[in-house]
Amino acid sequence: MDGARWQDELARLGAAFGVRLSGDALVAMWRHWQLVREATGRFNLTAVREDAEALVRHYVDSLVLLGIAGPWAAEGLLVDLGSGAGFPGIPLLVALGPGWRGLLLESQGKKAAFLREAVTVLGLDGRVIVEPVRAEEAGRRDSWREQADLVVARAVAPLNVLAEYGLPLLRVGGRLWAYKGPRVAEEWEAGRRAATVLGGRLVGAREVELPGGAGRRVLVEVVKEEPTPAGYPRRPGLPARRPLGA
Ligand SMILES: C[S@@+](CC[C@H](N)C(=O)[O-])C[C@H]1O[C@@H](n2cnc3c(N)ncnc32)[C@H](O)[C@@H]1O
């Protein structure tokens, strides 16, 4: 698929989900996909190879949140936990516009290096920071703790573990959106208990059918209602080994 057609198709599908994308945003997403596709030949960043499949499974999927939630403020801080090749963080930041700053957390060094390169090529240097650290470490640093307006994560961990990764980073009033699948019901109770311990509350879930048979996305909303107690997140690895609320 050529770049112009890919961008037209992304604009059309975005609009169908209530997401309006500027010309600059569409160009940036196409460039990002070129970088991902090229890097995938060198190491394993994504299983997706085809332009059309990436358009839906990576870009539309990342962006549907903007259509189902909001209204979105003109500025804020977004954290993407376990960003991998940059999903959903990079499409969201590009679409939200220059008022939004970003923190992409990715514990694997190679992927973090890719993200840094992508941020530079896309001209996002001034507003997006890549930290090659685990979410548990970032959540204990004063510079990032209780700062974010929005935390997102796709394909990283069960809800209760995500709650411990994400809630410490959110300011009171901020929201964690977990990109989940139809089986999230199995994670619900443990996630709810964990969120409560961490100053959060599971608000609910929104379901979206992705186009082209790409499956159903379930977006789970967690709101931060009180500061997270000082002992959380626990040391790296512990949230996944001894999950809260299990
Ligand atoms: C399956 S990949 C998903 C990547 C991307 N979110 C996506 O949906 O395409 C999960 C990523 O999360 C990262 N990860 C897992 N646990 C993490 C943690 N505690 N802190 C930071 N990154 C983490 C892994 O290194 C991996 O790149």
Automatic annotation (TrEMBL):
Region (Disordered): 227-246
Ligand binding (S-adenosyl-L-methionine): 82, 87, 135-136, 154
Gene3D superfamilies: Vaccinia Virus protein VP39
GO MF entries: rRNA (guanine-N7-)-methyltransferase activity
Biased composition (Low complexity): 229-246
Principal place of residence: cytoplasm
Keywords assigned by UniProt, alphabetized: Cytoplasm, Methyltransferase, rRNA processing, S-adenosyl-L-methionine, Transferase
Subcellular location: Cytoplasm
GO cellular component annotations of the record: cytosol
InterPro entries: rRNA_ssu_MeTfrase_G, SAM-dependent_MTases_sf
One of the Pfam families matching this protein, by short name: GidB
EC number: 2.1.1.-
Alphabetized HAMAP family for the sequence: 16SrRNA_methyltr_G
NCBIfam families the UniProt entry points to: rsmG_gidB (TIGR00138)
Homology family: Belongs to the methyltransferase superfamily. RNA methyltransferase RsmG family.
Main function: Specifically methylates the N7 position of a guanine in 16S rRNA.
Record's protein name: Ribosomal RNA small subunit methyltransferase G
Gene: rsmG
